[in-house]
Design brief:
globular; 16 strands; six-stranded antiparallel beta sheet; eight-stranded parallel beta sheet; TIM Barrel; alpha/beta
């Protein structure tokens, strides 16, 4: 478990929210953010648990002010970040903001190297609840010695702020970041493709022992609703992230999302797996040429089990109870389909489904 974990209680379950980057990149503004906050409320996403509204890179002016502080671009954010935070809080949401640990942000704006204490206080004064700290322009630095400065800087502000470490797994953050931040990226950036989702999922297979309440592996933000995949593929993407106890940070245009995307992002029994208070990240219990099975124990004594067809043709996928439980012997299990929100019935020794290409089945099993 590395060097221990934070015990401040800010992220007892994986943080959920929305981030501007995947859909909008550097084209971010006060109007976009507030319209998105309203859409989070109106769509039911806020009530489903999507709490943090995070403004990513390119909110800045091109230089610090005469006092040495970061400054928002007043053309894009005419009423300033403090007002934006107040408006987000008024909607029952929380405010997140981006900076970078190096000399410049990924888009070339002023970053925070050497100004960690100043910038953390600036964010606190603005009412920030969540800090994403990126890793561009960090030549010569190491994550395990750089990010603890942020832990101390945030603590010194006396404002509770979730720290999202975004150094792309360069310094194996799962080995050290549990006592430094609340979540840490375990891969390079996600793309809105099936290949990217499956590659990222594969890289999580051996990381389950490092995650838990207040310290989460982060396989990057969600692509659900951005158009590069089918709804079937997005369901598999979302199911994998739920099984991985991943932070669920939507990255789509919430203002104009399809009913299919909304249904995926707010699926109650799937979200309950991600937010299970036990906080156990899934193990991949089996993988073959075209299929795989993941399993995680839940707080109520049941298990969530995910069957995935990675292939390009229909395939029968089998989850065997001895593999799920990591114990020999036949078991019986009562199965519930979490996407269909329907009981399947009792199955002796295994559960199987014939799945369409790139599809999944996510079930909850109560063993007897």
């Amino acid at each position: 478990m590395g060097l221990g974990v934070l015990s401040d209680g800010l992220a007892p379950t994986p943080p959920m929210g929305w981030n501007s980057w995947n859909r909008f990149g550097p084209f971010v503004s006060e109007r976009l953010v507030l319209e998105t906050a309203d859409a989070l409320v109106e769509s039911g996403m806020r009530d489903a648990g999507y709490r943090y509204v995070v403004v990513d890179d390119a909110w800045h002016e091109s230089a610090r002010n005469d006092d040495g502080d970061l400054v928002e671009n007043r053309w894009a954010f005419p009423r300033g970040m403090r007002n934006l935070a107040d408006e987000i809080h008024r909607r029952g949401l929380s405010f997140g903001l981006y900076t970078d640990a190096g000399t410049r942000t990924c888009q070339g704006y002023p970053a925070s190297l050497g100004n960690e204490t100043r910038d953390a206080q600036r964010f606190a004064d603005w009412g920030v609840d969540f800090m994403k700290v990126d890793w561009c322009h960090t030549a010569g630095l190491r994550g395990r010695t750089t990010y603890p400065k942020w832990t101390e800087a945030i603590r010194a502000t006396r404002r509770p702020m979730v720290l999202s470490i975004c150094e792309w797994s360069r310094d194996k953050p799962w080995e050290w970041a549990g006592s430094v931040g609340h979540m840490w990226r375990t891969t390079s950036d996600i793309a809105d493709t099936w290949a990217s989702v499956m590659d990222i999922a594969a890289r999580q297979a051996d990381l389950h022992e490092y995650a838990g309440p207040d310290h989460w592996n982060d396989p990057d933000m969600l692509e659900v609703g951005n158009g590069g995949m089918s709804d079937e593929e997005y369901r598999t993407h979302f199911s994998l992230w739920a099984m991985l106890a991943a932070p669920l940070v939507a990255g789509n245009d919430v203002r104009a999302m399809s009913e299919g995307a909304r249904a995926i992002l707010t699926a109650p029994e799937v979200l309950a797996v991600d937010q299970d208070p036990r906080g156990s990240q899934a193990r991949r219990v089996r993988r073959d040429d075209v299929s795989e099975v993941w399993a995680r124990p839940l707080a109520d004594g049941t298990h969530a089990v995910l069957l995935v067809n990675r292939g390009d043709a229909r395939a029968n996928v089998v989850a065997r109870w001895d593999e799920v439980l990591d114990a020999k012997g036949s078991r019986r299990g009562n199965v519930r389909d979490l996407w269909e929100r329907a009981d399947v019935g009792e199955r002796d020794g295994y559960y199987d489904r014939t799945l369409a290409p790139h599809a999944c089945a996510l079930v909850k099993v109560a063993f007897t």
